[in-house]
Specification:
By secondary structure, this protein is of the alpha+beta class. It is built from three helices and four strands. The protein has a single domain, classed as Alpha-Beta Plaits (2-Layer Sandwich), CATH 3.30.70. The radius of gyration is 14 Å and the shape is globular.
Length: 100
C-alpha cells in the first residue's frame, strides 16, 4: 500500500472556496488502476493559513507514479491554476509506503 498526500496552506477566509473546488472537481480516479480511496482533510487554522491535505491510497507506489504520468492526471489538474489566490505557495507532497 502507498499513501500520497499533498499539504495545502490556504488563505484565511478561503477555506469554503477551497473545499468547493475539490467537491466539484472531476478527479478521473475511478478507473485508474491501483487507486483505492481519497480523502480531503482539514487541519488546524493559524493566523496566516489553514492547513488541508489531500490523502489518496494506492495499491503500490508504482500505481501512483503511473497515474501521475497519465492523461487522467493531466485532465484532473487542468484547472489547478485558476484559483491561485487561495493558496499560500504550492502544495507540499509527501509519499508513504506501508511497512506494517
Amino acid at each position: 500500500m502507498y499513501i500520497a498526500m499533498n499539504r495545502f496552506r490556504i488563505v484565511p477566509g478561503k477555506e469554503a472556496e477551497f473545499i468547493e473546488i475539490w467537491k466539484n472537481r472531476e478527479t478521473y480516479l475511478d478507473n485508474v488502476p491501483g487507486f483505492k480511496s481519497f480523502h480531503l482533510l482539514q487541519g488546524p487554522s493559524y493566523d496566516d493559513h489553514t492547513l488541508f491535505a489531500s490523502h489518496s491510497v494506492w495499491e503500490s507506489e508504482e500505481a501512483f507514479v503511473n497515474w501521475t504520468q497519465s492523461e487522467a492526471f493531466r485532465m484532473a489538474h487542468a484547472n489547478a491554476r485558476t484559483a491561485r489566490e487561495i493558496y499560500l505557495g504550492p502544495p507540499q507532497f509527501e509519499g508513504f509506503s506501508a511497512v506494517l
